[in-house]
Amino acid sequence: MYQTSLVTLAAALLTTTLLITPTAEARSAVNKSVRVNDGETLDENVSSVNGSVNIGADVELQGDAETVNGSLTVDNDSRTRNLSSVNGTVTVGDRVTVDGDVGTVNGKLRVGQQSTISGSVETVNGSIGLRGATVERDIETKNGDIVLDDGSVVQGDIRVKAPRGKNNWRDTLEIELRGGSSVAGDIRVEESKRKVRVILRDGSAVRGQIEGAEVIRE
Q: What is the rounded distance in angstroms from the CA atom of residue 98 to the CA atom of residue 119?
């Protein structure tokens, strides 16, 4: 699963980047941030261990972007592959195409207007917010709220996974659809003891089944 790869990302990145002698042009780093400048085309992965990763505007990144302890940002009109952070927020701007998955373990995840994620969107301890965006596969979380706004579309399912253990798990989660947003598949809650509210506003709809959650229509 994609979340499993996120949990092991820190060790993998540290092993890789310790073998690199950092330079001004380095796109992999241990204790500093990494940036891809506006308008660049880059055919390699971009990563940091203890730093942020920023992909500028109108960038063609033919590799993955990853960080362990830092935020990850993709500016408007860019195209990338997989995006992931372990301890940091992931922010995808407007009109961005992600040819893969987007995920974070401990951080928020935001996707902007007219952006498309061809894979899945996943968090463990972080909220997910889509604003006029499309996710072509699934959204999955264990401990975060989800908001779909401004006609966002999820072509797969939304799943609230059962947590492992009982430390810091929230008793109540919300999945809110507004502004005519839609989920083509199901909304499924795997933990029967967890209270999940699905709030449907402004004509928003779930085409499939809603299982294990309270449905509120406003």
A: 8
72 has which bridge partners?
53, 90
Provide the residue type at 154 as one letter: V
Residue 23 has pLDDT above 60, yes or no: no
- Cα dihedral sign, 104-109-115-118: positive
Tell me the mean pLDDT in the region 200-208: 97
**Cβ-proximal residues to 179 (8 Å cutoff; 6+ apart), any chain:** 149, 150, 151, 152, 201, 202, 204
Parallel, antiparallel, or unpaired: how do β-strands 195-200 and 153-154 relate?
Answer: unpaired
CB atoms under 10 Å from CB of 144, counted, come to 24
What's the one-letter identity of residue 44?
A: E
Percent of the chain past pLDDT 90, that is, above it, reads 80
Residue type, 39: G
Q: What angle do CA 122, 182, 204 make, to 5 degrees?
A: 130
Query: Alpha helices of the chain — where are they, by DSSP H?
Result: 2-7, 9-17
Range 69-72 contact pairs with CB under 8 angstroms and sequence separation of 24 or more = 69/10, 70/33, 71/107, 72/104
Which residue has tokens 């509120």? 216
What are the Cα distances from residue 171, in Å, to 56, 167, 197?
38, 11, 11
Neighbours of 177 (CB within 10 A): 26
- Give the pair of three-digit tokens for residue 164: 């492992």
Q: Which residue has the tokens 């908001």?
A: 147
pLDDT, position 191: 80
